[in-house]
Design a protein that fits this description.
Layout lengths: L15 H10 L6 H20 L8 H9 L8 H16 L25
Length: about 120
């Protein structure tokens, strides 16, 4: 994933986690720099998923962005399988932490599938 250099209106350097934090914490709406950064990042993620719909595995940061915008992808089979692959890949290495997510605002994709009995 290419690195995009951007800053917030306050001058903070934007990376994925910083942009998501700004988006979650700003109740009056996110600034255009944060919005553009996240939208461009999301577009790249969705393009990669569509290019490899049966094999692409989201990184932790990609998952965090995709999860933030999860409502856009409801009923999208490629999105559902990409999330399932992320969790399957993550569960294979439990020591690998999941990207920082706010479970109070992101309840659906942040919960790993439960093992079947």
């Amino acid at each position: 994933m290419g690195s995009v250099q951007a800053t917030t209106e306050d001058g903070d350097h934007l990376d994925i986690q910083t942009a998501l934090r700004h988006a979650r914490e700003n109740e009056s709406g996110i600034g255009s720099a944060v919005n553009d950064f996240l939208e461009n990042t999301l577009k790249g993620i969705w393009d990669r998923i569509q290019a490899r719909p049966h094999s692409y595995i989201l990184s932790k940061d990609e998952f965090a962005v995709f999860n933030f915008f999860r409502d856009r992808f409801r009923d999208q089979p490629f999105a559902e399988t990409a999330v399932a692959r992320f969790w399957q890949h993550h569960q294979e290495d439990p020591a690998r932490p999941v990207a920082d997510t706010d479970s109070s605002t992101t309840p659906n994709y942040t919960t790993a599938p439960r093992p079947r009995d």
